Amino acid sequence: MVELQQSFQVAALQTVSTTSVKNNIQQAAELISEAVEKGAQLLVLPEYFCLMGKNDHDKVDIGEPLDNGPIQQFLADQAQRHGVWIVGGTVPLVTGESSRIYNTTLVFDPQGRRVARYDKIHLFGFKKGTEAYDESVSIRPGENAPQSFDAPCGKVGLSICYDLRFPELYRALGNVNLILVPAAFTYTTGSAHWEMLLRARAVENQCYVLGAAQGGKHENGRRTWGHSMLIDPWGEVLACLPEGPGVVSGAINQTRLSEVRTALPALQHRVL
User: Which of 78, 82, 73, 96 shows the shortest CA–CA distance to 40?
Assistant: First the structure.
């Protein structure tokens, strides 16, 4: 049983990941240390923190079996070393298919134990002019939604990037105190919708939302929106980092959650 804390510090780590797994892990380690120094107790890395490849299939080449591989070992070691909760953005896990991986969020507790897994179910597809993406080429959709875990801030719900556009996933999580969204929103879609969607999920679920994003121009030519942020249950943006590597941090406060839910008991008024 995880003991609930009145105020619990969380952090989103924003990266501009490269085509080198080694360099990306080094960048992640430095940001983890920075966040821990600032008091963070739960840290979230962005989607694809370990690799932004030159093509869709680069991520398939570094796919790992569950609980076995250098990326997963890094995350477990960092959690244990610093005594914090680490949500590993996304990790490519093998599926049994030679051409596709699962895009998976793994959660490690302060002892370095894996306590949750969520495989992304909604796969991004976008085409506008010369800009086009199709995640289904190299990613197999997950089948294990919804997923959550208990932390000192209460129940925490898991989602990944494009999931943000599908509110039914968040309703299926039930009442949560915090929603996590590791992401790599494109500059085009992020500038239009990222903050809007994060704030909507916070308001409609009356919980905190923490988005950890890729944010900048990548070696592969892709540009991501960034703007990692923490949002409170009333939809207020508490902290935001527009672009570049860095840390966004703040507190999950039980009093604030109670105030919002008591003043406007929408969760109790739900009919469907």
Answer: 82
